[in-house]
Design goal:
It holds the Pfam family Pullul_strch_C. The chain is of the alpha+beta class. The strands form ten sheets. The protein has an eight-stranded mixed sheet. It has an eight-stranded parallel barrel with strand order 19-20-23-26-27-28-33-34. Strands 1, 12, 13, 16, 17 and 18 form a six-stranded antiparallel sheet that branches. Strand 12 and strand 13 form a beta hairpin.
């Protein structure tokens, strides 16, 4: 019998040999859930927190109150005020706990004062069973009547009871040639079954009961045969507070792929031919990064890359497979950047998300004038149904997004095409990074996309004191401080790195994760993939319910010192762009940046001096202890320089700093300049301001991070938040012949208050760049990449070396002047490196340090775009050097 026949038999064996435990009607029901037993009454606010299996904190409860824990395994609890509790199957009186461990008290300090209660031994012994049904606590008066009731927050108890689950290495589907296994962590479930399907649509092949493992709280199943290529979902019978006992029809949180809109998970061993492109086993990232500071990153949205590229076949535009067309305009552009020194392409979220319909999405084609509202109205009308979204709406963290696949319903195609993309970028000389979003999910509760919360209600999300899911990130915040949510983060990153050859990770709102968790991930990557350099960077913003260490030590800017994990440098960003990221109204127009008009103010202007200090700190890696010369000649460490109430110098090592002046958030760099510079500013002045801004990133110590299209003067027609603005406002033209500026007022939601000022600028025919200005910036940017790649002196990894070698020279605030000593370093290429940037629209004189200086080899041409024909030799001697307006000059001296 041939191999194909045997494979067919093995594929059918699970359905033939394993007993079906229930009628398959439950598997075939398209509804995401069904109530089996309704709750007797709405659940009270979950104000009581189980710190572990032994103790409970009820914030605000009087110390002398009589507190009882009530349980009803099948529901039916009623706790009306002023009456005795009803429907109680078991109850335990909780004594005051006078021996609360310091760790528990510290962990729950955000709840404030309250009475700690100890569970009696008999309650502790049966707690695993009680947490699978309905539970709550009440305060009773002397007659046994309810004076207050609260639901339970149970994550602390689950982490304590099922700590062994953290070491599980087989969650999800594990197919094999003779046996396939499934494991789901669902400690509060009363029953779990597997529904197995032949395809993404159609009736179930079989339904099988999983067996509970009491030690880990997980459920397992083993079936004879190879289930690869099959689809599945779970039926999870679980008590859901306020709803009742619910049969959830839900995909696997550990699914490695899925069908349309994650309704069914896909079984893959990730090694079968259907998901493995030719040459995948030999695929390797370019060896361009030996340390995080070697990274020069290009942040790119997958759909933006090709949706407007006519050189890509129509069926592949906006897809993973667009990257496989080596001769497309986009791939030619990326290869050019790679040859110049770009190392990493960072893709906005490409895991499975809930923001775009994976089948049947639409693409509007707006029409209208340069400054009218018709285009944004057309985009808004179809926003919920269109094919575009940034994708910060996780559903399945471990599965590729289906809307980027040519066949969203085919779980194998997603995997195969994703890997084709990775291979294509590697072959183009680029490493591949992922923007990952573990800080929130698209939904919680009973929403169809709430995969985690429907499997273990109340566990995976961070709750406030009333038991309500926190949403400070925008959406439903995950609690990565809980064991199994933290484990999911670590397991997921390791999967993408190991199985899909992802080379670096950028964490959205990383400050909402514990530092300890990020360091554990970092250690695992180094231990398990020792031959690869996989840097971790992220947004270290300090805000929300976790701000300033309210719940744990965060992975935020000021808390990451010594970790080697990079966070984004808003100091340099604000100095160069002007103002703050969220500016609107007058602040948006009037708070100029160093590259956009501020440098032309008087040298004693306080705002200019402040921006110059932030910029100079950034040039030295924003190190806490870097000595910065002040305007009055005094010297202060960068950590003593104020940035909006925080230290301008915040890092211990350059690897902890990610320098940038634009990314997907807020207006593009060009659009920022449109709002800051006077409308009559000549086009070339705008273009050169862009180059000056990009130079500050290329020349600063740390990780260099650029937004796709910045080198093409990319515009989003002034949109400050294009996450759901459709292809119309997010397009990129890789040929540099067309420009998006002036294609309508941006969407009303985040922009309408500024429409009057925006309308004036969008209608002004003097502003939109021509191909000439676009070419000027593109060629200048390539030179910046070449200069950064030319020497490790611009990519130092250690603080000691920065302090020893990098000297920010005294200069007027319109100039950035940095000297780097290469002596004693064999790979330095140069004995000395001198970086000069003039942001002013007028020439400025600068006295070069002593030595024989020549132009950097990249700038050898006397007609160069960046340095505008300036010759370093001309500055040797006492007279100094005249730096042209808005110019960038790099001088070198021999070793």
């Amino acid at each position: 019998m041939n191999r194909l026949c045997w494979n067919a038999i093995w594929a059918w064996l699970p359905a033939l040999l394993a007993p079906a435990v229930q009628a398959q009607d439950d598997c075939n029901d398209p509804a995401p859930w069904r109530v089996l037993t309704a709750a007797a009454e709405p659940a009270p606010a979950a104000r009581a927190v189980l710190a572990d299996r032994h103790r409970l904190l009820w914030a605000g409860a009087p110390a002398d109150a009589e507190v009882w824990l009530l349980a009803a395994p099948q529901g039916g609890l009623r706790t009306p005020l002023g009456q005795a509790p009803q429907g109680v199957v078991q109850r335990w009186r909780l004594s005051v706990d006078r021996a609360v461990p310091a760790e528990a008290a510290q962990r729950l300090r955000y709840l404030g004062d309250g009475a700690w209660r100890a569970l009696p031994a008999e309650a502790v012994a049966t707690l695993p069973q009680q947490l699978r049904g309905e539970t709550r606590v009440v305060r009773l008066d002397a007659e046994g009547r309810v004076t207050a009731a609260a639901g339970l927050q149970i994550a602390g108890a689950l982490d304590d009871l099922y700590a062994a689950a953290e070491s599980l290495d087989d969650l999800g589907a594990q197919p094999g040639p003779s046996e396939s296994r499934w494991r789901l962590w669902a400690p509060t479930a009363q029953a779990v079954s597997l529904c197995l399907y032949r395809a993404d649509a159609g009736p179930a092949l079989a339904q099988h009961a999983l067996r509970r493992d009491d030690a880990t709280g997980s459920w397992q199943l083993a079936l004879a045969g190879d289930a690869r290529g099959r689809y599945y979902r779970y039926l999870v019978d679980v008590w859901t507070p306020g709803t009742g006992l619910v049969r959830q029809r839900v995909a696997d949180p550990y699914a490695v792929s899925a069908g349309v809109d994650a309704r069914r998970a896909y079984v893959s061993g990730l090694d079968e031919p259907a998901v493995t492109p030719l040459g995948w086993a030999a695929d390797r990232a370019p060896a361009s990064v030996r340390q995080a500071t070697d990274m020069t990153v290009y942040e790119l949205h997958l759909r933006d890359f090709s949706i407007g590229d006519s050189s890509v076949p129509r069926a592949d535009r906006g897809r993973y497979t667009a990257f496989t067309h080596a001769d497309s305009a986009g791939m030619r552009h990326l290869r050019t950047l790679a040859r110049a020194g770009l190392t990493d392409v960072h893709l906005l979220p490409v895991f499975d998300h809930g923001a775009v319909p994976e089948a049947g999405c639409v693409t509007p084609t707006p029409r209208g004038g340069p400054a009218d509202a018709t285009q944004q109205a057309a985009v808004a009308a179809s926003a919920a149904r269109d094919c575009f979204n940034w994708g910060y709406d996780p559903v399945l963290f471990n599965a590729p997004e289906g809307s980027y696949s040519r066949r969203a319903a085919d779980g194998a195609s997603r995997l195969h095409e994703f890997r084709q993309m990775v291979m294509a970028l590697h072959r183009a000389g680029l490493r591949v990074g992922m923007d990952v979003v573990y800080n929130h999910t698209v939904a919680s509760g009973q929403h169809p996309n709430a995969v985690l919360d429907r499997v273990v209600p109340g566990y995976y999300h961070r709750l406030n004191a009333d038991g309500v899911v926190e949403r400070s990130t925008c959406c439903d915040n995950t609690a990565t401080e809980h064991r199994m949510m933290g484990k999911l983060l670590v397991d997921s990153v390791l999967l993408w790195a190991r199985a899909h050859h992802i080379d670096s990770f950028r964490f959205d709102l990383m400050g909402h994760q514990p530092r300890a968790l990020m360091e554990r991930l970092q250690q695992r990557l180094r231990a398990e993939l020792p031959d690869r350099v996989i840097p971790l960077i992220g947004e270290g913003w300090n805000f929300g319910e976790v701000a300033s260490g309210a719940r744990f030590e965060q992975a935020s800017q000021l808390s990451l010192n010594g970790s080697g994990i990079g966070s984004f440098n808003d100091r340099l960003r604000d100095a160069v762009r002007g103002g703050g990221a969220g500016d609107s109204g007058a602040a948006l127009l009037q708070r100029a940046g160093w590259a956009f008009g501020l440098a032309d103010r008087s040298a004693d202007d306080a705002e200019l001096q402040r921006a110059a200090l932030w910029l100079r700190a950034g040039a030295a890696g924003s190190l806490r202890h870097y000595p910065l010369r002040q305007q009055d000649g005094s010297v202060r460490e960068a950590q003593a320089v104020d940035y909006a109430g925080q230290p301008a110098g915040y890092a211990s090592q350059p690897t902890e700093v990610v320098n940038y002046v634009e990314n997907h958030d807020n207006q593009t760099l060009f659009d920022n300049g449109v709002m800051k510079l006077p409308p009559d500013t000549p086009r070339e002045v705008r273009a050169r301001a862009q180059l000056v801004a990009l130079a500050t990133v290329a020349f600063s110590q740390g990780v260099a991070y650029f937004h796709a299209g910045g080198e093409l003067l990319r515009s989003k027609s002034l949109d400050r938040n294009s996450f759901d603005s459709g292809d119309w406002f997010n397009r990129i033209d890789w040929t540099g012949q067309r420009h998006v500026f002036g294609t309508g007022l941006p969407p009303a939601g985040d922009n309408q208050a500024d429409w009057p000022a925006m309308r004036e600028r969008l209608a002004d025919t003097r502003i939109a760049p021509t191909p000439r200005e676009i070419a000027l910036v593109r060629e200048g940017f390539l030179d910046l990449l070449r200069i950064r790649a030319s020497t490790p002196l611009l990519r130092l990894a250690g603080a000691d070396e920065v302090l020893q070698r990098v000297r920010v020279l005294p200069a007027e605030p319109a100039l950035l002047a940095v000297q780097i000593d290469g002596r004693g370093r064999p790979d330095a290429q140069f004995g000395q490196l001198l970086l000069l940037v003039n942001a002013s629209r007028t020439p400025r004189r600068f006295a070069l340090p002593e030595g024989r200086w020549t132009n950097h080899p990249v700038l050898a041409s006397v007609a160069g775009i960046l340095h505008r024909g300036t010759d370093c030799l001309a500055g040797t001697g006492q007279g100094g050097l005249d730096l042209p307006a808005q110019s960038v000059l790099v001088c070198v001296a021999p070793r």
